[in-house]
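2024-03-11 09:14:02 DEBUG pipeline.ingest accepted 1 chain
2024-03-11 09:14:02 DEBUG pipeline.ingest length=355
2024-03-11 09:14:03 DEBUG pipeline.predict start
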Amino acid sequence: MKSPQRVADVRPLPIAVRPLPAETVSGYLARLATANMLTPRDLRLHVTAIAGLSPSRPNLERAAAWAERLGGLTPGHFDADARRNAMYVRCQHYQWQPTRCRQCGYTQRPRTACQRCSDGADTTVCRRGGAVCNRHRRWHIDGADLDLTPFPEYAHAERCLSGTLWKRGIGLTTGELQLAATLIRYWAVDDQISPRVAERMAALGVDELSPETVFLVAYPEVVNLTTVLTDLSFASYLLSPRFSLAEQVWALEAAVITIMRGSTTPRLHHVAEKIVSRGKAAVETAFGMRQNAHNKRPATLEKALIAASQRHRSCLLRHLSTVRIQVPPFKPGVAAPRNGVLVRRQPLPDLALQE
């Protein structure tokens, strides 16, 4: 591995390319190479050499400064773009409340960009939001390019995800959307879907609501249900020890059937009971969580809820209100992990969905 070349000594390529919002460095370099009549592989090898990266497994995202120089971009462009599109995280710097922390924030996993925005080129972005390009009304996740013009509800859902839900720390892979999609999929097994969803299925060429297609076909309903489930009042009621399990399961079922305009089903009841039971067990763990392994003093409840959500893989705990939830007398239990450990662990889908 060679020592990196000074950025100022790198000559820009003749043809500049405008980067997409939150475009990854690797995706931008591929488009830059094509515009300058180079192969993406040649430019990738060149950047690997001048940036001093490992030839065996080069991480081009670490070569942002050299990519900016080659493309004639303003220095620091990729870092500034990443900060604008960073996830809202819960960390010790802001009392474990969802905030866009400069130290702990991270971007979503790269996903394919809208083909219309990139002029047909294959590239990836890490921008805020979800699977819909509101500018061109296209579904663009996983390399797809589907027209959503007849369905304006997708645009409303995308604005909600990139606005309200984004500020709650919710993204495509944080678990809340997967939770809502699973509830809808189990409900659809025994009940009849609405005519609007059936119309979408016919237009998009989908035969049934499977784990692979429910997110595409019921995207507006998934986002709406996620908005309800992660509301402070609703989530606190759903997992509070003050209420019975039967009442809370019914509340979760009611949220699903209200949005889907149907009636409850045995499968929906079963999965709702699993979700609420696991969530309540996680809340009990949080109530007894100690500050660390060396003392028995209670940990900060906000931190304990985040730690318990990771320990039990229950994403709804990240949206509980410590004001609205009744805290029982403290009984020392497990120790809370260190702050750095909690922040490094990115949210994952609920474990109850995989059982």
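2024-03-11 09:14:41 DEBUG pipeline.report DSSP finds 14 helices and seven strands in the chain.
2024-03-11 09:14:41 DEBUG pipeline.predict end
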